[in-house]
Amino acid sequence: MTTLLLASTQRTVGWVLASIVLVGMGIYLLFNFRIGKREVGSEIELAPNRISHADDDLLETRLLDRNLAWSLVTLTVVSLVLPLYWLMEPARQDNAAYGWVKRFEKRGANSFEEACVSCHGPGGVGGVASFTNAGPMAVS
């Protein structure tokens, strides 16, 4: 008895979701294009970068000094922290490699305990289970 792949539940759900997304995208594009047509020619008023900013007299007072001070603080922090990061990076890489090896050694030991100890013994030397490779294809 075979099942028809075309009528599977997963495929049906996929088609329903795809059609919902396509209909939603079509509705979004329809509304977006209709709204976009009204503002043609008014880019100067609507563009976010077209607002009038403060004049030079206001900008060259406390506002500029505060921004320059924060820029200096940020530059100082970056110039102090970046060399420290560079100094610590080789040790971080070595520790990551060591941790990776330890983590996978532990996983391997757990897998050996669960799957192999019953036949090969605790040290992996064998001899615990009886020899099972006896038949016409056995290695002599």
What is the strand and helix layout of this fold?
Blueprint: H1 9-38, H2 43-46, H3 56-115, H4 117-120
Which features does this protein show?
140 residues, mainly alpha, 70% helix, flat
In short:
By secondary structure, this protein is mainly α.
3D architecture notes:
It is a single chain. This protein is mostly helical and 140 residues long. Among the domains are: 10-37; 80-127. It has four helices and no strands. The model has no long low-confidence stretch (mean pLDDT 81).
Q: Approximately what portion of the residues adopt beta-strand conformation?
A: under 5%
Based on CA inertia axes, which overall geometry fits?
flat
Q: In this structure, how is the largest beta sheet organized?
A: none
Low-confidence stretches: none
Helix and strand succession? Answer: HHHH
Oligomer: single chain
